[in-house]
Here is the input.
Amino acid sequence: MSSLPLVSTAAIGRSVAVATPAWPSLVFERLSAMPKLAGVTSASRLEVRPAPQMVSSGVREIDALSGGLPRGCLTEICGPASSGRTSVLLAALAAATGRQEVCALVDISDAFNPHSAAAAGVNFEKMLWVRCGRLQKQSSPQRHRNTEKIEKIERPVKQGLRVVDLLLQSGGFGLVIIDLGDTPLKMARRIPLASWFRFQRAVEHTATVLFVVSQVPCAQTCASLLLKVSGKKLSAPSCQLSVETSPAHAQLLDGIQVQGELLRSRLERKPAGSVTTAFTTKVRAG
Amino acid sequence: MPFACIFVPDFPVEALLRAEPELRSQSLAVLEGKAPLQKVFAVNEHARRAGVDPGMTKLQIEACGGLVLRVRSLPQEATAHAALLDCGHSFSPRVEDAGCDTIVLDLAGLQPLFGPPPKIARALAHRASALGLEVSVAVAGNPDTAVLAARGFSGVTVIPEGKEAEQLGSLPVEVLFENPTRESVRLLETFNRWGIRKLRDLAALPNIALSERLGQSGVHLQKLARGATFHTLVPVESLLIFEEMIELEYPLVLLEPLAFLLGRLLEQLCARLEARALATQELRLCLELENGWQVEEIVMRTEARRSFHRTLRLPVPLLDSRTFLKLLQLDLKAHPPGAPIVKIHLAAEPVRPRATQSGLFLPPSPEPEKLELTLAKIAGIVGEDKVGSFELLDTHRPQGFRMQRFAPGSFSPQRHGDPEKDNSNILFPASSLSSSVSLCLCGENLVTALRIFRPPVDATVIMQDGKPASIHCPKNKETQGDILWAAGPWRSSGDWWEQGDWLRDEWDIAVQGETSIALYRLVRDRLGGRWFLEGTYD
Here is the structure.
């Protein structure tokens, strides 16, 4: 086998460039002369993303904690039953309708109470209520009972996601609320991240506040603001939940003492003063 | 003072072609009468060239290849005539109805708006074409000359004043007679015997001799031929009825071809409304169904059973045929007719178009057209009765509310700090208000919300010392165990004067859940003895 020459005969006799101290400036000069890559912006020219406009949530303590609800972002509030999350939902609705904005509530579990909304001061004319979970026509008797049971749980969530998509694509709403408060945890966690990402992109650069109420955090990284509420203790004239000798007709439920905690905020540019807050709800006739 | 005449040649054919424009390039004959004695009533130019003439029997024309046959439709002719009047009214307020296929307009005062008469004539032809009618337009100094010119010359004709006799001279004498009557047939025969073929021949006859032979009718015809008549226009007060209809050759079963025809009818309706500077807020669709089909939703009467009605009410006046079509499609998909369709009738209620002006400082709101489409799509997903706003009823009955149509309405500015609206502190003082935070008044007292269980959750409750001690819900495994705290009962009742009376006791209870204590509203139906959980305080 013939060996290849290491250096071609044509190269012999050519002058070879030798590194000199002028090389860095020469390299810089050559790099600057190269055609710029399309779509690439130098870091010095990147603009600072403006902070989203904040609107009141209707609860003074939450506004002090987080600055309000951000427009064009997804806000999530989570907590177990009787933690005060629905009260915060109604307060946000009352505040938004009070600003004469058109709002929409996608009620996955059909749990909304119009009388509580009236007591909270919600303007009905500005609020669209979508009640999910319509029963289909009578299923065939061959269908398995378990399949029907699963479908009965999944159907409202699927309907709700489609409805939210339609509302966000339509545009013009000041506040869109997704109420997953009574949705089973397993079902709520199975909502694909792609759906949340899609919703988040749909409200970006719009004036819509997308507000999600759930038992546990569902939107994950798509939520710009994540609040957790828990019922601190019952607010009642008598002591807490102890076996009382006072008759039941002498007891009265005043309200719920709520503990709120800011778990995540992508909007803060300065450290928050406090990450927790507390407030009380009042029971009104309704 | 110029007058314009719009004439629709082969009017029965044009009336049918409005609904089926694809037949315009084919030979078309319109039949009238009962089978098997049907005869040709009207033909278009292609059929005329193929040798088909009015009066021929169906048997005679069946030998002609490529001939499309349609049955005469009087309702379609009525809508075509209405469209013709709409076309005239879109230019002039003074329009005379000179026949089912002819209208005359007074063009006085229109030149500053629309330009010189030739331009007006071209605009009339263009507008009529947009409404589905191919017309001939003529402009002249008097109405009768304009009518003769429109009937005699195709396309757009303008006769300058003083040139009427010269321009009309080349027309055949048949143009003087609109409908064949005994008198007109006699006169035509007389003219034929005299060798009078053209209007110039008639105009050249001696006046006195003509009156001696044919009387005043002959003199009148001569004046018409000379363009020397004048009659005062009698404007028609046309009713604002906007309807379009089509009778189908064969029954339609699928919704897709129905949507295609509906789209065409909607385009015609919107064009007519636009010609009158109107919009619509209500569309009424009536589908005539094929006989012999049993449809459950239709009233059990023979005549009423054959019709299927749907009404589309819009929150604001609109004039977009695509939006209307989409709404009708969604509605028909949710409420299908259930039987093949043989006739489609579409009517629009005319209203003034809305005049809205967007403001810089108004809050965002959905566009009415988009919102209506979105609501229709959502109704198709969750059901019509499950989407909308709500109205509280004047009753103490629990869950006393009803769903109603969602119509956000127009923005009514509210003064900030309105005492009727809210009496709480301002969140941010005005001096420190930044552009990133909107001013809003917040309530001091946050209302405790009640989440409702729909349907209510049945429960088994064990009482102790007159108050609930433990609870068991077969369908809600989280609500089991001892009741930690209870308040109540509160008794309420109502409607005892009606059949739907109710009597119930309410308790507020606290039950230990998996991770925290949950508060519920427990209800006992005193009439039925049943316990159930109505909702949870949250």
About this structure: Chain A touches chain B through 89 residues (CB under 8 Å).
